[in-house]
Amino acid sequence: MKHFEKIALILAAGLALWGCQSPTSSSSSSTPAATFTVTYDANGATSGTVPTDGNSYAQGTPVTVLGNTGNLAKTGSGFSGWNTKADGTGTSYATGASFTMGTANVTLFAVWGTPYSVTYHSNGALTGAPPVDGNVYGASSTVTILGIGNMSYSGYALAGWMTKTDGTGTSYAVGATFTMGASNVDLYAVWVPTNLKFSTTGTTITLTGYTTPPTGALIVPTGVTSIGSDAFASCTGLTGVTIPSSVTSIGSDAFGGCTVLISITVASGNPDFESISGVLYDKAGDALLDAPGTLSRSFTIPSSVTSIGLGAFWGCSGLTSITIPSSVTSIGLGAFWGCSGLTSVAIPASV
């Protein structure tokens, strides 16, 4: 009997030991996923500090490339971004670009190239000096647009900056950014009369209205890129409007109800609009957008026109008849509102 008891005790002890050594779900553990780092190298910079990315990245996760936050600089060169090889033969990345982490740590080297500058011009300011950008930029680097500096222009407010004084360049709001090309950049102040309201964002400077109604001839400042809907509606003292080449967008009824408006003039270099006999059309001539309020007697719409804009003839009380060609397929709401003298409108079947 004792022999069997010993065998039973041995078996029980063995089973207990096997149970302690067997893995269970509560005691199991997995190997942590490998992570990798991104290190920035000044690559010969003579001043400044490299940005630091304190994150650890698993394979397949996105990495956002940092900017030149430590103002790295190299004498005689401009910062142009980052590259995976010190000699620039690897993959290049601009600030804010992203890439997917692989299976090894990544070092990004500063890229140094031909230096370029950004110079600000007062463009009419009576006192003070424009801001000075002391940075040296390489091609593909990011430039942030500066503010007013110490300039002052009585009766005007700074709306932004433009690359050409004739309005054929690009306009920028203060705080906007652009990518440096392979040449120096000159920026000229865009001044807007203080009685006009405007909004800015990115490469857009928009006239939105006014605090005091403009009278006489309104010259839209060069550098303004957009005129908002109803911006100058019912300005009954407005006699003329001149639109520069920089304006590429005009909202509906922008000059509707301007009853003494004699003509709307558009700069010949404007890529989007044109004026024919004081009437505003799009550049292609297929949209009639605005007619001056003093338009009188009979008016024949050109055969190239396919659409008549919202409020296009609003307030033309001296107009007595309009001939609409068969090319017109749409007429905007309120196109003839306020045309109290209108006695005849020939609307074709095409509408």
Structure description:
The protein has three domains: 35-113, Sandwich (Immunoglobulin-like); 118-194, Sandwich (Immunoglobulin-like); 200-351, Alpha-Beta Horseshoe (Leucine-rich repeat, LRR (right-handed beta-alpha superhelix)), CATH 3.80.10.10. Helices cover 6% and strands 33% of the residues. It is built from one helix and 29 strands. A hairpin with an 8-residue loop joins strand 5 and strand 6. The longest helix has 20 residues, at 2-21.
CATH architecture of the largest domain: Alpha-Beta Horseshoe
Look up the CATH topology of the largest domain. Leucine-rich repeat, LRR (right-handed beta-alpha superhelix)
SSE-based structural type: mainly beta
Strand content: 25-35%
Which sequence of SSEs, written as H and E, runs from N to C?
A: HEEEEEEEEEEEEEEEEEEEEEEEEEEEEE
The global form is elongated
Rounded to an integer in angstroms, the radius of gyration calculated over CA atoms is: 34 Å
Give the integer mean of the pLDDT values.
Answer: 92
Specify the number of helices. Answer: 1
List the domain count as a whole number. Answer: 3
What's the story with the biggest beta sheet? 5 strands, mixed
User: How far from one another are the termini?
Assistant: 114 Å
The CATH superfamily name of the largest domain is: Ribonuclease Inhibitor
Report the uncertain regions: 7-20, 22-27
Write the layout of secondary structure elements.
Blueprint: H1 2-21, E1 35-36, E2 38-41, E3 57-58, E4 62-64, E5 78-83, E6 92-93, E7 98-100, E8 106-113, E9 118-121, E10 142-144, E11 156-162, E12 171-172, E13 177-179, E14 185-193, E15 196-201, E16 204-210, E17 216-219, E18 226-227, E19 238-243, E20 249-250, E21 263-266, E22 273-276, E23 279-282, E24 287-290, E25 297-300, E26 307-308, E27 319-323, E28 330-331, E29 344-346
Parallel strand pairs: 2-8, 9-14, 16-18, 17-19, 18-20, 19-21, 24-26, 25-27, 26-28, 27-29
Antiparallel strand pairs: 1-3, 4-7, 5-6, 5-8, 10-13, 11-12, 11-14, 15-16, 22-23, 23-24
